[in-house]
Design brief:
Immunoglobulin-like, six-stranded mixed beta sheet, 20 strands
Length: 330
């Protein structure tokens, strides 16, 4: 999903990672997930992240004496009822644009998309079907949904008692359920066997145009620096770019930020740590700048940076910042 540029006040209201002129939040997605399992280990994870593609290859081993058929879930960020009005500024994520592709031992496999309605973790999908209420209700308009406006006073009161509706002070009613989407499949893990799974998709990036990294204002945005572990080396390179462009009256001063989020924490749900972890972040162009929170980063090409870990247990998720300056046309 390409950034949809927003007015400054909207970006401020949403408390996005950067208070830039225009911005849109990234949607942090991640790898496949399994309910904690004592038999299946993740022997390796080879992860590639760029603005255009996320690609990850896993190797799993079933250490038990039996074949295991398990449901593998690729969870997508929930569309939350509490954020209904915010979506009016950021737009609803279009998960159909992700273009999921999965292969198992080199062969394509079918994926199933499942949507559920949840209220505080309670699944109410079946109850909505019984009532004839729609699962997808969030539009970002801030207006009372059309189906709610058709309900009688008794039906509204019953929905509130059941926790499916909330009544605002001004008298309007809004649904309370989040819409949770999972991409799932059945996966067989043969006894004492190893399986290789590759997954790829287009990330839902966010970004901004200029703003919080300029020397005069960066001290006002410490969270932005912390989120992406921006160090003095990065800032020095950024300042050199600014200085060079100030000498050229035809050079645009505005720069763009691209934000890519990836959920690493799902790797904790397998037997033991990830045996062999490799991350490659590609910044796209040699002249771009990149920053993310990982130790032991090694540059392996003009655009790619590598991290390797043995027996890796993710302690958090990954946020990647790419800074790009527009070319000077002459």
């Amino acid at each position: 999903m390409r950034p949809i540029f927003l007015p400054l006040l909207a970006a401020l209201a949403l408390a996005q990672p950067a208070r830039a002129n225009d911005s849109e939040a990234a949607v942090s997605i991640g790898g496949i997930e399994l309910v904690a399992n004592p038999h299946v280990s993740m022997d390796s994870e080879d992860l590639y992240i760029s603005e255009k593609e996320v690609r990850v290859r896993y190797r799993y081993t079933n250490h038990s004496d039996k074949d295991l058929e398990l449901t593998i879930s690729f969870p997508l960020p929930a569309i939350r009822a509490a954020d209904e009005e915010k979506y009016g500024y950021t737009a609803l994520p279009d998960y159909s644009a992700l273009g999921f592709e999965t292969t198992v031992d080199g062969k394509p496999v079918a994926l199933k998309v499942e949507k559920r309605a949840e209220v505080a973790g309670r699944d109410v999908t079946q109850r909505l079907a019984e009532l004839g209420w729609p699962l997808d209700w969030i539009t970002g308009s801030g207006e009372e949904p059309a189906f709610v406006r058709k309900l009688t006073a008794d039906q509204l009161a019953a929905g509130v008692r059941e926790g499916l509706l909330r009544r605002e002070d001004h008298g309007m009613h809004f649904p309370t359920w989040d819409v949770v989407t999972h991409v799932t499949r059945k996966q067989t893990f043969p006894a004492h066997g190893t399986v290789e799974v590759t997954h790829r998709y287009a990330p839902m990036i966010g970004g901004s145009v200029a703003g919080s990294l300029f020397p005069a204002v960066r001290k006002d945005y410490p969270e932005h620096l912390k989120t992406y572990c921006i160090d003095q080396g990065f800032l020095a390179a950024f300042d050199r770019k600014v200085a060079a462009r100030m000498k050229d009256p035809d050079a645009p001063m505005a720069y763009s930020e691209t934000w890519i989020g990836y959920v690493l924490s799902s790797g904790r749900n397998w037997r033991g740590p990830i045996g062999d972890f490799r991350l490659v972040v590609d910044k796209g162009k040699p002249e771009n700048l990149v920053s993310f929170c990982m130790d032991g980063v090694k540059k392996i090409s003009p655009t790619q940076f590598e991290v390797r870990r043995k027996n890796f247990e993710p302690s958090g998720d990954l946020e990647v910042l790419i800074v790009e300056w527009p070319s000077i046309e002459g």
